[in-house]
Amino acid sequence: MDKVTPKSDVFKANLDRAAPLLKALRANGIGHVIDGKVVTSISGDTFETRSPIDGAVLASVARGNAEDIDLAATAAALAFKGWRDLPASMRKKLLHRVADAIEDRADDIAVLECIDTGQAHRFMAKAAVRAAENFRFFADKCADARDGLNMPSEEHWNVSTRVPIGPVGVITPWNTPFMLSTWKIAPALAAGCTVVHKPAEWSPVTADLLAKLVKQAGVPDGVLNTVHGIGEEAGKALTEHPAIKAIGFVGESATGSAIMAQGAPTLKRVHFELGGKNPVIVFDDADLDRALDAVVFMIYSLNGERCTSSSRLLIQQSIADRFIEKLTARVKALKVGHPLDPQTEIGPLIHERHLAKVCSYFDIARQDGAVIAVGGKPYDGPGGGHYVQPTLVTGAQPKMRVAQEEVFGPFLTVIPFRDENEAIEIANDVRYGLTGYVWTNDTGRALRVADALEAGMIWLNSENVRHLPTPFGGMKSSGIGRDGGDYSFDFYMETKHVSLARGTHKIQRLGA
Ligand code: NAD
User: Fold this and answer.
1) Which domain holds residue 356?
2) What's the pLDDT score for residue 127?
3) I need a surface site. Which of 134, 177, 220, 432 has the fewest CB within 10 A?
4) Are residues 232 and 178 in the same domain?
5) What is the pLDDT of residues 298-318, one digit of tens each?
6) pLDDT of 443-476, one tens digit each?
7) Per-residue model confidence (pLDDT) at position 360
8) pTM higher than 0.85 for the full model?
């Protein structure tokens, strides 16, 4: 970071903000937060987290295993009754205080997230603010979380109510880790659950900050515990721990399968938000200028490391040449650069292994006979980190690997289609089903296609604009269950039926 020469005042201010934070990180390292205390691993093991910008070591991080998870799960179990039974108004107050604390540190969170993950500051600044919104939204729902239904029958008064399921595990990935973690943790805490969080090993920095902000806000010790470590060690142990009643997981589909198997002996309830290969379908009657903006935004923002990215562009043949020409110009003009530079649109990818994965798709595209119209190489960016050229692949066929597999980088595959039926067929012909985006000015067609798409979330004439009460989640290999609004409480709570007899019904008299 030291060698960078900032070209603007904002860039310089971001670097200046980061410097003391990095110094403290390097000096103190990152420990687990268990029962309100910062602790090392019982084994004493650590791992290093490095910046994708220049490979510099950011911190030595405690490497948890089953013993540390056991301590954290025990702390969460002990704290559960107190947190569950705290009046909802008090939980609400505390969660709003967490949101205040996040807002107070939003600028710090933004720069740390950029340096730890390589995400561009223009997006991360908003991620911290969105994280605070997640806490506020669910704080306001604390009082309603237990609400149920009244379902009277002739002889009984039947009501349902909801109770928190117990201590839960939350396992998160490295893309936008701060925002994503709050998305899972805030509803769990609002429901009255206690949490053990296992953040991704490639991005531990802001998870540590979150744990500390939650404590600083006055949330009781043991309510949120954070254990760092490797997925197959700490993550696996969390999914197997008998005190943990449910696992909220965001990550790859293959990891979801592993977690389901690991959690089977203890009958874990699972909620999975997994991978995607989401189509954006552009019909020839669409507002093509708006469609172009959305297509570019939904794959090249957040480094393309985004589960809801529209990584397949399905373009109607009649407009394909015209649209691809404009798209090509836009992709060529994307600004790859240092994540703290406000001009940057694409920063370095999270890790050298991920860079290698994304780059492997350049050869795969060529071998399959597709055309790399833009990009297709690593990029020599500031700091020499894991930069890649934004890439556009044209001439793809639906069965090609670049049209089927999640690349999870700034990599867009263009597939032409003839008509509505063919567009739907291509869109659904993948194992994933997270989101779908449709651009057309024919309302009837928009609704027909929305009905036909096999995806959990559809946006018509829009990019992904999140509205917190709506259900978030995927079909097929993209996930199990829904988050958002009241849907989150269905996962973190048990629904209980209580039946009160009016005293009038006939009870069978056996042995009388
Ligand atoms: P990943 O599955 O490799 O890791 C996610 C988390 O799981 C990490 O914390 C990791 O340590 C942990 N883990 C790994 N193996 C484990 C195991 N056996 N048991 C328990 N935990 C384990 O995913 P990633 O590479 O960090 O993230 C990228 C993936 O996440 C992409 O596929 C992306 O689409 C997906 N994602 C989905 C959504 C969504 O909402 N659907 C959102 C963001 C990311």
Assistant:
1) 279-460
2) 84
3) 220
4) yes
5) 999 999 999 999 999 999 999
6) 999 999 999 999 999 999 999 999 999 999 999 9
7) 98
8) yes
pLDDT surpasses 80 at 3: no
Whether 24 maps to a domain, the answer reads yes
The dihedral through the CA atoms of 502, 505, 510, 512 has a sign that is: positive
Flag whether 67 is in a domain. yes
Ligand 1 geometric centre to CA of 351 (Å): 14
Single out the catalytic residue among 113, 133, 240, 273: 273
Q: Is the CB of 275 under 6 A from ligand 1?
A: yes
- Which contacts (CB < 8 Å, 24+ apart) does range 365-370 have? 365/393, 365/396, 365/400, 365/402, 365/413, 368/396, 368/397, 368/400, 368/401, 368/402, 369/395, 369/397, 369/400, 370/394, 370/395, 370/396, 370/397, 370/400, 370/402, 370/413
The atom number, within ligand 1, closest to the CA of 273 reads: 41
Average pLDDT, the chain: 97
- Dist CA 197 CA 180 (whole Å): 12
Distance 34 CA to ligand 1 centre (A): 22
Is residue 466 assigned to a domain?
Answer: no
- For the record, the structure tokens of 236 come out as 């696996």
| Max CA pair span of the chain | 92
Q: Do 136 and 99 touch, CB atoms closer than 8 A?
A: yes
What ligand 1 atom has the least distance to the C-alpha of 198? 9
Ligand 1 lined by 409 (C-beta under 6 Å) = no
Task: Examine residue 512 and state whether it is found in any structural domain, yes or no.
Answer: no
Query: Does residue 214 share a domain with residue 187?
Result: yes
